[in-house]
Specification:
This protein is of the alpha+beta class and 157 residues long. The protein has one domain: Molybdopterin cofactor biosynthesis C (MoaC) domain (Alpha-Beta Plaits). Helices cover 29% and strands 29% of the residues. It is built from 4 helices and 5 strands. A 5-stranded antiparallel beta sheet has the order 2-3-1-4-5, covered by helices on one side. The protein is elongated. The active site is at residue 128. One of its GO terms (molecular function) is cyclic pyranopterin monophosphate synthase activity. Belongs to the MoaC family.
């Protein structure tokens, strides 16, 4: 029986060996939000931000980040993602942008980290583009919402 661990026989960090794991269809969805001033969200929603389309830039940044997760998170496997969807929904009533990301693949390991990374970088991109208007923005509640596939099956928050 293969024991999946991030530690080798000497107790040193290593990438988990997934060679013997079966390939299965896997999906993960993560979410988070960026809370901001009424002024900042109005500029975004009305398309009046001086730096351009904030949501389009954040969407692309999230997709790119998911593709590069193994370069950002130590010991993450490089994955051939087959789908990455990043959604950004303005919530004017609460002065925030709600972010969600769903990543899919057929492979030997899950895509939770890729979905979480996509949400995080999309949020950071919004912050970067809007910080001149509102430095007090808060990126928060980044969390896994659901994952399916693999040995552990389905998990939902």
């Amino acid at each position: 029986m293969t024991h999946f661990t991030h530690l080798n026989d000497k107790g040193e960090a290593q990438m988990v060996d997934v060679t013997e794991k079966a390939q299965t269809f896997r999906v993960a969805t993560a979410s988070g939000h960026v809370k901001m001033s009424a002024e900042a969200i109005a500029l975004i929603v009305n398309g009046e931000h001086k730096k351009g389309d904030v949501l389009a830039a954040a969407r692309i940044a999230g997709i790119q980040a998911a593709k590069k997760t193994s370069e950002l998170i130590p010991l993450c496997h490089p994955l051939l993602l087959t789908s990455i969807k990043v959604r950004l929904e303005p919530d004017i009533e609460n002065n925030q942008i709600n972010i969600s990301a769903t990543c899919k693949l057929t492979g030997q390991t899950g895509v939770e980290m890729e979905a979480l990374t996509a949400v995080t970088v999309a949020g950071l991109t919004i912050y970067d583009m809007c910080k001149a208007v509102d430095k007090s923005m808060v990126i928060s509640t980044i969390q896994l919402e659901e994952k399916t596939g693999g040995k552990s099956g389905t998990w939902t928050r």
